């Protein structure tokens, strides 16, 4: 075994990818999910409908709220399902899910860390990263959801661009990086951070990019953005090359105008966390955890709707303590992973062991972050911002844990790649710090358990019906 480990450790990149692919593939092949639900069904429909009456066209994309790229990537699955494998829809989706998971946790995540830190990531640390990804997110890959392909494109594109002196590599990286916007538009916030860091090239031993590299980035961006621009012009009479956050006739109307983000912000005042039920024990499909803040902060307003970001900021200024509490609850709830999948069979039975492990990981990440933050160069904070800003923009909204995936990956990276080897912990932690760390760890876990319990106390249907199985 020792020789086998030594041989595998010589090729950590591809061995890690292969192990992740095998692990997720075996799990998904034997998982309990046999159909798509809700959002995942919609994504399949967007991909399938790109071909109508035997004619393929991106103009068939009939929603302004979703980018074209994820349906386009899934289109081959719908063709295989229609032409060759009519009884294998879920097998095709799970195969894609296993590949996305293996690329994200087994290959791209560790490579991104190596690129931005200059530190080699060995096989053991890669396996730890894969393990956390598997434990916390394994059942998400049974379905078509844009969150994981979106962060995969962001990290893969960033890695290629940041490592690239080759014009071809930078061009492909730019396509992936900009492509993340057309899978998850929230990553528009990350794009300038990555490009600014790339332009400054702080202390990595590589020359700053020249005109050819910047031209490659522009060309890659144009290639990826042009289809969305054409769709918006043809279908929605808009010259905006980005994914539109409004769609006439949709249900996302605020103050008489269609605006998806503002709609989510308004609903986020009333709902602090949201899950989706597909089981029998809970009466509703929507698993809503109400937030008690809305009646307080909206009392006395002639119009209960928040019509702009400026109005939301004013609301924070008028009710600083209540709104700070709301935003902190949302942030914690987005990090509080109680289930390993997006569609719940047993709402009343969260995975307590999984939650406790998650709190421990969060504490370790916090310790590493506090220790390493003073050592970061000012420019390094740009890459931290690239992962954190999309999460912060999601905090005021109706929170689901998958919306915070970029921050979760940063947490796992800090723990798996930033901690010293366990064999050296006793040497690295001074005796005077051991008791305070233990007390801090215990207190942190207790606080997290309390906050999670408070959220669950606000479940819309908090008690299991007597007739439930």
TrEMBL record:
Keywords: Membrane, Transmembrane, Transmembrane helix. The keyword Protease does not apply. The keyword Membrane applies. The chain crosses the membrane at residues 144-162, 182-200, 212-231, 347-369, 381-399, 405-423, 435-453. This is Dolichyl-phosphate-mannose-protein mannosyltransferase.
């Amino acid at each position: 075994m020792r020789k086998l480990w030594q041989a595998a450790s010589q090729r950590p990149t591809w061995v890690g990818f292969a192990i992740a692919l095998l692990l997720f593939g075996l799990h998904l092949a034997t998982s309990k999910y046999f159909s798509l639900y809700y959002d995942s069904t919609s994504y399949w429909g967007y991909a399938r409908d790109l071909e109508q009456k035997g004619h393929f066209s991106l103009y068939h994309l009939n929603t302004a709220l979703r980018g074209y790229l994820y349906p386009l990537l899934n289109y081959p699955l719908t063709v295989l399902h229609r032409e060759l494998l009519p009884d294998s829809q879920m097998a095709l989706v799970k195969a894609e899910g296993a590949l996305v998971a293996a690329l994200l946790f087994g290959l791209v995540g560790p490579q991104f860390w190596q690129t931005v830190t200059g530190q080699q990531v060995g096989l053991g640390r890669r396996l730890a990263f894969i393990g956390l990804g598997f434990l916390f997110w394994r059942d998400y890959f049974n379905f078509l959801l844009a969150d994981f392909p979106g962060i995969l494109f962001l990290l893969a594109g960033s890695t290629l661009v940041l490592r690239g002196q080759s014009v071809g590599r930078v061009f492909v990286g730019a396509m992936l990086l900009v492509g993340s916007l057309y899978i998850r538009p929230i990553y528009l916030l990350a794009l300038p951070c990555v490009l600014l860091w790339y332009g400054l090239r702080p202390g990595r031993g590589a020359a700053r990019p020249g005109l050819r590299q910047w031209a490659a980035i522009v060309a890659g961006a144009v290639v990826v953005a042009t289809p969305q621009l054409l769709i918006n012009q043809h279908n929605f009479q808009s010259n905006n090359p980005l994914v539109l956050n409004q769609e006439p006739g949709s249900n996302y109307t605020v103050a008489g105008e269609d605006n998806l983000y503002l709609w989510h912000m308004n609903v986020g005042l009333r709902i602090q966390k949201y899950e989706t039920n597909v089981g029998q024990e809970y009466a509703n499909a929507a698993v809503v955890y109400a937030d008690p803040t809305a009646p307080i902060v909206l009392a006395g307003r002639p119009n209960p709707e928040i019509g702009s970001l400026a109005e939301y900021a004013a609301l924070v200024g008028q009710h600083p303590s209540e709104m700070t509490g709301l935003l902190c609850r949302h942030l914690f709830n987005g990090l509080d992973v109680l289930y390993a999948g997006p569609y719940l069979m047993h709402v009343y039975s969260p995975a307590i062991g999984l939650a406790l492990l998650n709190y421990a990981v969060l504490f370790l990440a916090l310790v590493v972050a506090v220790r390493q933050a003073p050592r970061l160069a000012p420019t390094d904070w740009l890459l931290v911002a690239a992962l954190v800003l999309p999460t912060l923009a999601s905090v005021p909204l109706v929170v689901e844990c998958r919306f915070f995936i970029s921050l979760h990956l940063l947490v796992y990276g800090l723990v798996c790649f930033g901690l010293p080897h366990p064999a050296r912990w006793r040497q690295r932690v001074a005796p005077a710090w051991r008791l305070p760390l233990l007390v801090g760890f215990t207190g942190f876990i207790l606080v997290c358990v309390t906050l999670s319990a408070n959220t669950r106390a606000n479940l819309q249907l908090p008690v299991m019906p007597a007739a439930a199985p």
